[in-house]
Amino acid sequence: MANITKKVSWSSRADETGILGEGTPLLNGSEQLTHSRQPSEGRSVFQIGRLSTVDLEEEITSDEDSQRGRPNEIPHNEKLLSLKFESLDYDNIENQLFLEEERRMSHMNFQCLEISRWVVCGLIGFLTGLIACFIDIAVEELAGIKYQVVKKNIENFTEVGGLSISLLLWAVLNSAIVMMGAIIVAFFEPIAAGSGIPQIKCYLNGVKIPRVVRLKTLVVKVCGVICSVVGGLAVGKEGPMIHSGAVVAAGVSQGRSTSLKRDFKIFEYFRRDTEKRDFVSAGAAAGVSAAFGAPVGGVLFALEEGASFWNQMLTWRIFFASMISTFTLNIFLSVYNKNPGDLSNPGLINFGRFQIDGVAYNFYEIPLFIAMGAIGGLLGALFNILNYWLTIFRIRYVHRPCLQVMEAMLVAAVTATVSFTMIYFSNDCQPLGPEDKKEYPLQLFCADGEYNSMATAFFNTPERSVHSLFHNQPGTYNPLTLGLFTLTYFFLACWTYGLAVSAGVFIPSLLIGAAWGRLCGILLAAITTPAPLWADPGKYALIGAAAQLGGIVRMTLSLTVIMVEATGNVTYGLPIMLVLMTSKIVGDYFVEGLYDIHIKLQSIPFLHWEAPATSHWLTAREVMSSPVTCLNRIEKVGTIVDTLSNTSTNHNGFPVVVQVSGSDEPEKLCGLILRSQLIVLLKHKVFVELARSRLTHRKLQLKDFRDAYPRFPPIQSIHVSQDERECMMDLTEFMNATPYTVPQETSLPRVFKLFRALGLRHLVVVDDENRVVGLVTRKDLARYHIGKHGLEELQLAQT
Amino acid sequence: MANITKKVSWSSRADETGILGEGTPLLNGSEQLTHSRQPSEGRSVFQIGRLSTVDLEEEITSDEDSQRGRPNEIPHNEKLLSLKFESLDYDNIENQLFLEEERRMSHMNFQCLEISRWVVCGLIGFLTGLIACFIDIAVEELAGIKYQVVKKNIENFTEVGGLSISLLLWAVLNSAIVMMGAIIVAFFEPIAAGSGIPQIKCYLNGVKIPRVVRLKTLVVKVCGVICSVVGGLAVGKEGPMIHSGAVVAAGVSQGRSTSLKRDFKIFEYFRRDTEKRDFVSAGAAAGVSAAFGAPVGGVLFALEEGASFWNQMLTWRIFFASMISTFTLNIFLSVYNKNPGDLSNPGLINFGRFQIDGVAYNFYEIPLFIAMGAIGGLLGALFNILNYWLTIFRIRYVHRPCLQVMEAMLVAAVTATVSFTMIYFSNDCQPLGPEDKKEYPLQLFCADGEYNSMATAFFNTPERSVHSLFHNQPGTYNPLTLGLFTLTYFFLACWTYGLAVSAGVFIPSLLIGAAWGRLCGILLAAITTPAPLWADPGKYALIGAAAQLGGIVRMTLSLTVIMVEATGNVTYGLPIMLVLMTSKIVGDYFVEGLYDIHIKLQSIPFLHWEAPATSHWLTAREVMSSPVTCLNRIEKVGTIVDTLSNTSTNHNGFPVVVQVSGSDEPEKLCGLILRSQLIVLLKHKVFVELARSRLTHRKLQLKDFRDAYPRFPPIQSIHVSQDERECMMDLTEFMNATPYTVPQETSLPRVFKLFRALGLRHLVVVDDENRVVGLVTRKDLARYHIGKHGLEELQLAQT
Fold it and tell me: Is B238 part of the contact surface with chain A (CB cutoff 8 Å)?
């Protein structure tokens, strides 16, 4: 246990402390342990020292820091691992209360529970579909008004000159709309910024991200995304759907809203992390399903990102939620489109039908697809690196809400200006066919009966632009238009992602990819003149879109299925898979996926699927935190309060030990209890002495824990008098009597597998006498990763 | 530990012993334990008694039984759990050798391993696709010849009379072909009978089914399925593809064939159960993919049936294998069909394209679909019950290979006769349109330019019949034809499944369902005259097919996706899901799915996803086997040989314990070692004394274990001299030093979750002093299930 050397930094400025932390003296665990092995009479808790990752000399700083409240500048560094993120408890707390309840339940009760799970999933799907529908209609209507106004203005001024006024109008309109979206995000709920996919990934991974599944977040997210899209930013409304679905799921499954202070007294059984996570998976899947009309893709997304333990019934329920979601959206949109019963709008984005007869691919095209995948990987990596630098810049200099709003407005204005300039200087006129149902064809300087081709790409919602790139007839776009569009949109999208607005990166990626993919198709057709049938530009646009999206987000199976479902055609499965695979391999060579970059920049302790391959030389002894604060099975209240109040450690799980009375044998592990449980016990004053005196005192039930879930009060809010401090508390009934344990010699991959497969939060390390020697938590495992120079260890930071 | 009461039966006749076993005296574990806690001087192994599940009084029977070899009559009873099935080790044996090897490997080595995994998956996909292609072409060609011969004969005799000769020809031809198929299956490889899906399910679940992934099985399977389909039985060739893919995977991934005695010295790292299982999953997925052109469905099938621990990279590789498989099949079939490059034949069965414009479903049709799902569930349950009785009958009376061959021939002859009779007495003549490309239109007694409608259903391979039921124009079949066809085919298919031939049940189920589904569509159209557009009989045929298949096999998500992919149209996702859900719920009310019935009838210890809901009152103490045979860390060879030779216990895992020398403290658990490891150690004579005397003796390496995998020799084949028996063996280096353990009080669901999530084979139960008190294995967990009267416990049988 002695050989632990953990580098610790402790300040609100990561950049400086990263260097500082390395210079500070390291804590030697064994000394502390020896010291604490002498139980003091006054305190029966075995506070075997302090959290090994905390440097003692900096204790004062830490207390100051915690009193200062939320620091203005949040340190972000991908070489640090934040200690401020808590884990979720995906392991059931099997204490006596729980077991008694389970044993009381009959088979019929369990079946009722199962039915209510289905009902909840149906509700989740329905509500998620409704939200998607609301977003879609709102965007359609508002964007329609905006584009009509601008179009009329442009048409007026095309004749008489003075188009700069139109530009001004467009830019001001965009900025104003985006401003609204940015204000609600930056000032009211910063967690609603971005697509929300990284946050949901982390939640499903088991990291508790504060406020991520609250009602307020949902409202801000929905309004924010409408503003962003209507404001003409290079964003999509699909990513936020996934977050929205997750929030809906978390809300519905708990049968109450803490924000609205309403408790419907239903689904109380589901008020714990294990059940809630399952529903949030279903919500995320429903979100994907509504966004792309891809129910199977949604299920796979939820599984790929979330579930480590695959369960048949759970998956089936997730699929049900997905199906209901896409179906609801479809029904309502069909009514909105005045074509009720037509079920051809399963998602927010529809790639449209690729007619199989003309454009099935050929064997010899596969190398071309793979080459395009490599291009996608390269461009994706470039996108990610640029966005990474930009994010670092933003973290350092653009962290005030008002600055964030101004940056968003700037981007909106620039986007409008660039678009206008591109349209203005483009001389790509195309005849306006009778079958072209373009919503806002801009004639500009084109002849009558013609329209400006650049405008179809820029003067439109991104979803429509993708659709036209996929399906417009060959010859609709000239190569220069496409090249310029790719270039400008690439930088715009890169700048936009990470702004303080709700917005997704899926559609911009697809759009960039579709543009250069179509370009590839046109060039191929030009090279192999006479233009053969196989070089259909729409097909290459699809492949390019897949390559670009894969290069940026690096999702695998789920993305393939989403793309296939969105095209509604399984024939393209193989090429899309090959392309996504290539782009992932090429992109991973340079930099991680966009979501992973953002997760790392927030120093979130994210657990990957497996331990790093070369980590077999590490054992539980090396990775565990030690010494551990243990509690006795019958413990003094004062000790518990002191332990919980200790802001410098802030532990969340405490092994419970027992010593055979009178014997001098070492104390054995007999259970594990959580901070949240102790808080509830203290709040209800479950003390041995009180139980004796007040025989009528209501026994504490599981319901009391559920009512307090998930917002357990802080220890400071619980008043314990001096007399009560002398009371004793019996933890036997409430602790988890059979926590999972591993011996000290267990290798890291084995510990990791156990931890990950069972979704643990605390794993007790014991010696061969069953004595507690350490505790493995998420941050202990997330610290190790494969870097450029083999296995690397991240530093821990308190912020 | 004292309260263990396990009912044991021990005989080769399950029906009798089921009753007998209950009356036999029960073993009291605690007495045995007390007795064994006094370590005898002569034997340092703590054979703490005997396997608790074995009744001592019946010991002699058991020895006799094991000497008799394979009994002729295999007892089958779904109320028993067989002890003869071993488990697979999905938990890595992390002993010192393994850890040393892993630590020696650089990051580059791991990447090479990863690449070889991809190569193997690609090969699996390619070979599976080739096999599918071979089966398809062979069936096409041979069936073509057969039908042409019979057709010519019928046409000859239609004019002159004497059609009974045609009937005789048809019946004899069928019987002869089926006989060949039945002979190779019944005499050479009985495990190749049936679809193989139950066997693969069990393998992926972790049960070692003997000979299931051998090359010989593959050859028999492929030849057998060709004979069955060509022989005109009511079978499909899709199920066996899944088994074939699994065998291919097991073979390719090991880089050698024990049957062919060839070792290519590649992929040696993959020679253990953990890796092999992953590849077998990929093989099964590739099989599904080739069978139905459903790569995503294949992945989901593999996950639904196999993987308890979901891993992103693994899933991605499985998907790759699936894609390659369907692509290979597609390419080769396009060449065979003289249309190279046309990629519209992704699977063995193709449902054909449902044109979306005409036949999209409407909102108000959904209740109809659900009603059809209920019918499917009912009919499926009926099918399963009939097949269950039939299987029981077969187990009792038709267990000799020659009888089995004769039964198969009988079924073939009856199928031909019934088909002929149906065609003969049918007067449903339809005009032969120019677009109808029926392969073998029978005119029979119809007017010129017309053909017999019943013959399209009966006088054809089942795949073609399904296709015609889905896609023929409304009016092609009259209701009576369809009704009669459904009825006869239902009973024929039910009789056929379980014969000693390689054959799947997917296509017959689809065919039955398509027939009554089309009937529903026709009736609906008749009721709602004037026949509206929505009551398209083809659509209802599809729904009926899904309902019937779901009612029989009860698969969930994977089946939905397979159906959607086979139709090539995601629009039908929701109705298919609803139908499958309904049919599963309705069917489950009566009886289990067909595969589960067959697994239960073979008394296989199959672990479901979760422990029974009402099993919280059971703890590890009650479910574990105890007392346990433990070994010392440094153990006498004679003791080990005796332990392994003990046929009455036949244990496979032994906890290793250590006692601090000189102290009187109880011995602690320090590791776990497997029978297979001990066998290799004995074979290489890794004795302490020999190592001292022969310093040059080569150190045993992991390679020696891998070379012996998976067919470890029996202990009887290893000669240990009397001198060697006195030697000592040091197990430290070879045992798994950190086995997973649970305390005695752990509840069954918790034990189950750990066991299932990590794919364990042995889980050591310890007390709070870290002493071994019991061992939980697969059979201990599989015993409990929810029956009609709540939680039930299966009896254990030695056969």
Answer: no
B219 CB near a chain A CB, below 8 Å? no
Q: Do A304 and B326 touch (CB under 8 A)?
A: no
Which DSSP string corresponds to A282-305? HHHHHHHHHHHS-HHHHHHHHHHH
Per the CB < 8 Å rule, is B738 touching A758?
Answer: no
Rounded CA gap, B545 and B559, in Å?
Answer: 12
Question: From residue B691, how far is each of A132, B99, B681, B718, B726 by CA, in Å?
Answer: 72, 22, 13, 19, 14
Question: How many Å apart are CA A279 and CA A314, to the nearest integer?
Answer: 9
Amino acid at B6: K
CA A97 to chain centre: 33
Q: By percentage, how much of chain B surpasses pLDDT 70? A: 84
Residue B366 at interface with chain A, using a CB cutoff of 8 Å: no
- Whether omega before B39 lies within 30 degrees of 0, making that bond cis, reads no
* Average pLDDT of span B230-253: 91
The upper half-sphere exposure of residue A355, i.e. CA atoms within 13 Å in the direction of its Cβ, equals 7
C-alpha dihedral sign at B45, B49, B51, B54 = positive
DSSP A331-396: HHHHHHTT-TT-----SSS---PPPHHHH---GGGHHHHHHHHHHHHHHHHHHHHHHHHHHHHHHH
Which residues of B fall within a CB distance of 8 Å from A343? 360-361, 571
The answer, for B574 touching chain A at a CB cutoff of 8 Å, is yes
SS3 B233: coil
Contacts of A743 (CB under 8 A, 6+ apart): A620, A765, A766, A767, A768, B737, B738
Of A465, A454, A445, A446, the residue nearest A423 (C-alpha): A454
- DSSP state at residue B26: P
**3-class SS of residue A728:** strand
Instruction: Confirm if B706 and B687 have CB atoms less than 8 A apart.
Output: no
Rounded to whole angstroms, how far apart are CA atoms A226 and A223?
Answer: 5
Tokens of B281: 């999953």
**pLDDT tens digits, one per residue of B517-572:** 999 988 888 887 665 556 678 889 999 999 999 999 988 788 888 988 888 777 78
Is A315 near chain B, with CB under 8 Å?
A: yes
Q: How many CA atoms are closer than 13 Å to the CA of A288, on its beta-carbon side?
A: 29
B663 touches chain A (CB under 8 A): no
Q: Three-state SS for B702?
A: helix
Using CA atoms, how far residue A523 sits from A209, A483, A548, A723, in Å, is 47, 11, 18, 85
Residue contacts between A and B (CB atoms, under 8 Å): 196
CB interface of B with A, residues 739-778, below 8 Å: 740-743, 745-747, 750, 753-754, 757-758, 766, 768-770
In this structure, what DSSP letter does residue A714 have?
P
Disruptive mutation site among B281, B316, B369, B767 for chain A (greatest number of A CBs within 10 Å): B316
d(CA A513, CA A526): 20
The number of residues in chain B equals 799
Q: How many helices and strands in chain A, by DSSP H and E? A: 31, 20
pLDDT tens digit string along A712-762?
Answer: 888 888 888 888 898 888 898 899 999 999 999 999 999 998 998 888 899
Whether chain A has a CB inside 8 Å of the CB on B561: the answer is: yes
Contact predicate A66/A648, CB 8 Å = no
ipTM: 0.86
Residue found by looking up tokens 């196989």 in the block:
A534
CB of A617 within 8 Å of a chain B CB? The answer is: yes
- Which contacts (CB < 8 Å, 24+ apart) does range B149-157 have? B149/B173, B150/B459, B151/B440, B151/B442, B151/B459, B154/B442, B154/B444, B155/B443
| CB B246, CB B200: distance < 8 Å | yes
Closest in B295, B307, B356 to A573, CB measured = B295
